[in-house]
Amino acid sequence: MPSLVSHSIEEFEQLIDSLRQHSNIPAVSAAIANDNRVVWARGFGVADLDTNRPATPDTTYHLASLTKLFSSAILLQLVHEGKITLEDPAEKYGIRIPSPGIIRLWHLMSHTSLHMPGSAYSYDGSRFTHLGIVIERVTGGNFATEFVKRIQRPFRLFRIAPNPDTPAFDATGLDRTEYRANLARSYRYIKGKHIPTDPPAIFDAAAGMTGSAVDIARFSIALDQGAVVPSYLRDRSYIPIKLLWGKTSPYGLGWFTTIYKGERVIWHYGEWIAMSSLIVKVPDRKLTFVVLGNTDALSTPYGLGAGQIETSAWARAFLDSFVFGNAQLPPTSEVHRNVRPR
Asked: Are residues 72 and 255 in contact, defined by beta-carbon separation less than 8 angstroms?
């Protein structure tokens, strides 16, 4: 394992590529946003081993559970519009889950619906999926159509879209063939070999979105600006849930939240068959790091569902270099040459 501290952006690039190689990930793309600008982005390795297509900052990847960031944002928009409340019982929207108590929307958003609602944190994507029903019932559309209307088109995030192997992609109006051509091919690493693996062809409120590191960083900037979700609700989503018996969950409303070396870090990860992703935000500094890979190795080794960001070598590489170290980011007036302008 390489040292996780770098002292310059050049050393950081070398560190990320060393982590990629150490983790046997063919392709990784990463981006950093600082003070409302994407100031750095790079692709590392090969997005398709058969064609030797290189990874770029604009390469798209399957995001797995980073999908929750977008469904949570839409739900909070609906709260702001007065169309739902976080205290609404899930049953109000036809969601019927056996429970000893009343499951409310915030329980599903915070992974606290298992057992007595609000009593314990248990990361559960299958329960989070039910929140798509709320979006459908309230808007008359669905998660895909609302994502396009509320997030993709207003913020011009055309490298974030539902899995192109699902009908939900049709809502974007994008060229499916062109979009697929930019996707990193997914692999499992087994006994020293990379095995091409098609991800599940699903799309719901919990998983199935695809995207590029640069556009996810731009989404993060829009969050920081209060443009996606009003600031008061965005800030509420970052607050860890206080559980019934006095303990504090590591999760808020669609986001993990951690105090790392005294600094508040808001983050999320994605992990599924042959895919992984990570976003790390330091809101008080308007600083975001996004890293995407085409195996599960960005996430699986670290057990991130337990809510401990410090277990991730990728997160520590960023935080210990740019937040707690002396590495300097490029000036906010400069955008890395590999970022394609819009």
From this structure: yes
Residues 194 and 274: beta-carbon distance below 8 Å = no
* DSSP line for 102-143: PPBHHHHHTT--SSSTTS-----HHHHTTHHHHHHHHHSS-H
The DSSP code sequence of 87-101 is TSBGGGGT-----SS
pLDDT digits (tens, 9 = 90+) for 193-227: 999 999 999 999 999 999 999 999 999 999 999 99
With a CB cutoff of 8 Å and minimum separation 6, the contacts of 325 are 5, 6, 7
The architecture in CATH of the region 9-323 reads 3-Layer(aba) Sandwich (3.40)
**DSSP E strand boundaries for the chain:** 27-34, 37-48, 53-54, 60-64, 160-162, 187-190, 193-196, 209-212, 256-260, 263-272, 275-282, 287-293
pLDDT tens column, 79-93: 999 999 999 999 999
SS3 state of residue 83:
coil
Q: Residue 336 is which amino acid?
A: H
pTM for the model stands at 0.95
CA distance 268 to 236: 16
Tell me which H or E stretch contains 277.
strand 275-282
Report which secondary-structure segment, H or E, holds 128.
Answer: helix 125-128
CA–CA separation, 33 and 35 (whole Å): 7
